[in-house]
Automatic annotation (TrEMBL):
<keyword id="KW-0030">Aminoacyl-tRNA synthetase</keyword>
<comment type="subunit">
    <text>Tetramer of two alpha and two beta subunits.</text>
</comment>
<keyword id="KW-0460">Magnesium</keyword>
<keyword id="KW-0067">ATP-binding</keyword>
<dbReference type="InterPro" id="IPR045864">
    <property type="entry name" value="aa-tRNA-synth_II/BPL/LPL"/>
</dbReference>
<dbReference type="InterPro" id="IPR004529">
    <property type="entry name" value="Phe-tRNA-synth_IIc_asu"/>
</dbReference>
<dbReference type="InterPro" id="IPR006195">
    <property type="entry name" value="aa-tRNA-synth_II"/>
</dbReference>
<keyword id="KW-0963">Cytoplasm</keyword>
<dbReference type="InterPro" id="IPR002319">
    <property type="entry name" value="Phenylalanyl-tRNA_Synthase"/>
</dbReference>
<feature type="domain" description="Aminoacyl-transfer RNA synthetases class-II family profile">
    <location>
        <begin position="113"/>
        <end position="320"/>
    </location>
</feature>
<dbReference type="Pfam" id="PF01409">
    <property type="entry name" value="tRNA-synt_2d"/>
</dbReference>
<feature type="binding site">
    <location>
        <position position="256"/>
    </location>
    <ligand>
        <name>Mg(2+)</name>
    </ligand>
</feature>
<protein>
    <recommendedName>
        <fullName>Phenylalanine--tRNA ligase alpha subunit</fullName>
        <ecNumber>6.1.1.20</ecNumber>
    </recommendedName>
</protein>
<keyword id="KW-0479">Metal-binding</keyword>
<dbReference type="InterPro" id="IPR004188">
    <property type="entry name" value="Phe-tRNA_ligase_II_N"/>
</dbReference>
<keyword id="KW-0547">Nucleotide-binding</keyword>
<dbReference type="InterPro" id="IPR010978">
    <property type="entry name" value="tRNA-bd_arm"/>
</dbReference>
Length: 344
C-alpha cells in the first residue's frame, strides 16, 4: 500500500506539471483527491492492515494528499496569471483615443420651482411637511369643513379607491394631519409640497395628476395683513421686485374670508395684453384665513388661535415664469424640452 501511495504521488505531480488549462487541472483534482479519487480508493484497504501499520499509512496518505493539493494550488495560480497576461495582450486599450462624453442630468423644472419655494419659506421659519397620497375621506374633506354631501366636493372630482379611501385631491390633508399632531398648541408653520390627483381631461392647461404647494400658519393674533405680506414676498421672490399683487374676494370651504391672488403682468407692466387677457393681472393662487371650523376639528381654540393658508401649483408658476403654453410638457419627458431648463 505504501508503494501504491508513492506511485500515485509521482504520477499526480507529473500530470499536474504538464497540465495546460484550468479545466484539466480541476479534473486532476477530482481524480486524485475527490470522494472517489485514487487516494480514497487506496485507503479503503486500511482495514486489512495491522494495528501498527495503520497510523504509518494514514500519515503517509495525509502527507501525499497535502503535497498534491499544494501542487494543484500552485499550478492554478500559475495558469491564472498566464491567462491574465494573455487577456491584457489581447485587450490593450489605446489611451490616446478620445473618450465618450457623459451626459450629466439635472433637476426637473418642476422640482426646481418647488425647491425655490421651499428655500424661501424655510428661510422664513416654515417647515416642510409631507403626507400620504392615498388619503382618507375624513382628512381629505371632512376635517377641512367639507362634510359628506357638501356641494363643494364636486369642485374636486376624485379618484375613490373605496368609500373611505381616495387619491388626495389637494395637499390640504397634510395641514389637517399636522394640526392634529400639535394637539391644539401653536404655532404651526408649514408648507406642504406634493402630488395630487383629480379626475380631469388632460389638455394644455389641465392634468389628472399635478403638483401643489400649500402653506399654513396658525398662531395667536394671525391677521389678513400677515397673509398679504407673505404673498407679496412670494410674488417678488418668484417674479421680480417690480411685481405687484392684488387680492380678490373668493370662496374656499376651509378658509373664511377667502381670496384669490393676482400678480401684475410682466409682459405689459399692467397695461393689458393678450397674455393677461387685457386685464393687466394674472391669476396666481388661492388663500385665506383658516376657517374656525377647521381649527376646532383639529383641536385648536378658534377664540384664541387664528391662521392663514394658501395653495399654488408649481406647474402654473413654471408656465408663467418661462412662457410654457402646454402643461403636458412637464410629464411627457421630452429631452429636448427638459434640456432648456438644465440649469434648474
Amino acid at each position: 500500500m505504501k508503494e501504491r501511495l508513492q506511485s500515485i504521488k509521482e504520477e499526480a505531480l507529473q500530470q499536474i506539471d504538464e497540465v495546460k488549462d484550468s479545466k484539466a487541472l480541476q479534473d486532476l483534482r477530482v481524480k486524485y483527491l475527490g470522494k472517489k479519487g485514487q487516494i480514497t480508493e487506496v485507503l479503503k484497504g486500511m482495514g486489512k492492515l495491522s494495528k501498527e501499520e495503520r497510523p504509518v499509512i494514514g500519515q503517509l496518505a495525509n502527507d501525499i494528499r497535502d503535497a498534491i493539493t499544494e501542487a494543484l494550488d500552485t499550478k492554478q495560480a500559475t495558469l491564472e496569471e498566464a491567462a491574465l497576461e494573455q487577456q491584457l495582450k489581447e485587450e490593450t486599450i489605446d489611451v490616446t483615443l478620445p473618450g465618450k462624453p457623459a451626459q450629466v442630468g439635472g433637476s426637473h423644472l418642476l422640482m426646481g420651482v418647488i425647491r425655490d419655494i421651499e428655500d424661501l419659506f424655510t428661510s422664513m421659519g416654515y417647515e416642510v411637511a409631507e403626507g400620504p397620497e392615498v388619503e382618507t375621506d375624513y382628512y381629505n374633506f371632512e376635517a377641512l369643513n367639507l362634510p359628506k354631501g357638501h356641494p363643494a366636493r364636486d369642485m374636486q372630482d376624485s379618484f375613490y379607491i373605496t368609500e373611505e379611501l381616495l387619491m388626495r385631491t389637494h395637499t390640504s390633508p397634510v395641514q389637517a394631519r399636522t394640526m392634529n399632531q400639535h394637539e391644539g398648541r401653536g404655532p404651526v408653520k408649514i408648507i406642504c409640497p406634493g402630488k395630487v390627483y383629480r379626475r380631469d381631461t388632460d389638455d394644455a392647461t389641465h392634468s389628472h395628476q399635478f403638483t401643489q404647494i400649500e402653506g399654513l400658519y396658525v398662531d395667536e393674533n394671525i391677521r389678513m395683513s400677515d397673509l398679504k405680506g407673505t404673498l407679496n414676498a412670494l410674488a417678488k421672490y418668484l417674479f421680480g421686485e417690480d411685481r405687484d399683487i392684488r387680492l380678490r374676494p373668493s370662496y374656499f370651504p376651509f378658509t373664511e374670508p377667502s381670496v384669490e391672488m393676482d400678480i401684475s403682468c410682466k409682459m405689459c407692466g399692467g397695461e393689458g395684453c393678450s397674455v393677461c387677457k387685457q386685464t393687466g393681472w394674472i391669476e396666481m393662487l388661492g388663500a385665506g384665513l383658516v376657517h374656525p371650523n377647521v381649527l376646532e376639528m383639529a383641536g385648536f381654540d378658534s377664540e384664541r388661535y387664528s391662521g392663514f393658508a394658501f395653495g399654488m401649483g408649481p406647474e402654473r408658476i413654471a408656465m408663467l415664469k418661462h412662457g410654457i403654453e402646454d402643461i403636458r410638457h412637464f410629464y411627457t419627458n421630452d429631452v429636448r424640452f427638459l434640456k432648456q431648463f438644465h440649469r434648474v
